[in-house]
Every structure is written in C-alpha cells, then in structure tokens.
Design brief:
The protein is α/β, with parallel strands linked by helices. It has two domains: 148 residues, 3-Layer(aba) Sandwich (Rossmann fold), CATH 3.40.50; 100 residues, HUPs (Rossmann fold), CATH 3.40.50. The protein is 31% helix and 17% strand. The strands form five sheets. It has a three-stranded parallel beta sheet with strand order 1-2-3, with helices on one face. A three-stranded antiparallel beta sheet has the order 4-5-8.
Length: 307
Amino acid sequence: MPANGGRRCGRFAPSPTGPLHFGSLVAALASACDARASGARWRVRIEDVDVPRSAPGAADAILRTLARYGFRWDGPVERQSDRTPHYAAALEQLARAGLAYPCACTRRELDRAPHGAGGERVYPGTCRAGVPAALAARTQRAWRVRVDDAEVAFVDRLQGPQRQHLGADVGDFVVKRADGLFAYQLAVVVDDAAQQVTDVVRGADLLASTPRQIHLARLLGDAVPTYLHVPIAIDREGQKLSKQTRAPALPDEPVPALLAAWRFLDQPAPREALRDVAAFWQHALRAWSPARLPPVSMLPAPALALA
C-alpha cells in the first residue's frame, strides 16, 4: 500500500543543465500519462544537486516549457539544491549504522579498477576497513555505502526482470562526493521517499543505476517504487539526445513535438487531427497504453528532434 494513503504518485525530475529537448519530452510525457491516466498524482522536481552543472535560468525555463506544452503538476516544485540537510541526515543515518564510510581514493586511482558486467569500474574496497595510512594525509573524503554481497532483483514494468550483484558489478558506491556535493543516487532516493513517489517512469539510460537506488531505499527503511524505463531517443550517430550531445531545444509550437513523442512511444494514433494542446492531452490521457510501449532501451529520434 502506498504510504500516501493509497494514492499513487509519479514524477518527472529534469536536471537544469540546459533547455528541455525531445528526449526529455519523451520521459515527461510517459511519466505524466502513466500517472494521470490511472488517477495518480504527478510531481515535478528539479534535480540540481550537482550545482556546478546547473545553467543559470534553466530551471525556470524548463518549468515554462512544461507549462506551455500542457503539463500540469501537483504541489510545489522541489529543488534538490534546497534539500541538502535532508541528504545529510540520510548519510548520518547510514554512517551511524556502519553502512557508509569515508573514502580518500582519487578518480585516477579508481581508473585502474576492473570493470563489472555493466562496464563500470568496480570499487576495490581500498577504504572499506578505514582510510589506509598511505592516504591519510589527503583532506578530501568521499562517502561510500557498503554493498557487501547484496544482489538486487526487480521487475521493470517494460524492460522485464532485472538483476544486479552490487558487489561484483559496482562495488561500494559514492553517496557524497569528495567536493562535498551529495551524489544523485542518494538524493533521488531521499526525494522520492519524501514526495511519496510510488511509480518511477524515466529513460532506460537510468536502468543500470536502479539497483543502487533500491539498495539505498532498503537501507534507509523507505518504500521501493515500481519502475518503468522507456526507450531513450538517440541521434544519427547513436548517441543519446542530451545537452552534452547538443540536442536542440524543444520548438515553441508544442503540438507537433507532442505528437512526435507520442508516436515514438508507439501509442494509439488519434482518429482526427489534434489542433491544440488541450485536444492532445484529452486524447493522450484517454488512449495511454503501457502495453504498447516498445520494450527496447533506445530508438532513433524523429527528424523533428534533430533539427
């Protein structure tokens, strides 16, 4: 039973590193439709925990674009940059229980660590029993959470059964960076619990990090949401559409882009031309069908998204 009295809740959580693009729209549309079509709440959260990467004015521009495209959300918009005390409290809880520890390893040192099954470097446990004497003079410390022999299995609503052995595939992972910023993995778990999120719908590029978030939620005593990872949009070179790959901002005219995202998700076509945003949303919330979503991790973006 959801902790919020039985009502389910979804969310969209963009990072304000630039304007919304087609890939963002796909994730927002899938999340909003999945929540609204089932009578759930739908929240928006600005994930600006990585403050140096946030572009000035990007958060407000994102919210204006969402509103222009007909998205309506419940409650206030939370910003991770305002929630540092909550992340600190969660880390303190983990540390008191012996589940997190300081680490003095540098990124260059960890570049020599072996790769796990998913291609990530596996932390070798250098500081697990305490910072070695040879590293003790270093003043900066990251914080890592212990994974031990944890194996996390879950069933993604679209991608199917998933399993990850955290010790062999990832190792103890960072929850607070050496520069003092809290890591995404911790922030997203704390925020989903605080906002009583029960259903996470997002891009498949985040599928591999989901077991870490489930592990953290369990350690913190939080409910674990259900997950649905939709395909990400890729450009002509096979790269994910993102600010880093210079994906163009969404056009000022919403309807063509909304329809392109709807088709990308293989949803039922409208029987007649949809001339405005309100008509699109009436159709979308009536016709939304998770069973029709393409069960793949990536798909080519339409021409509109690459212009």
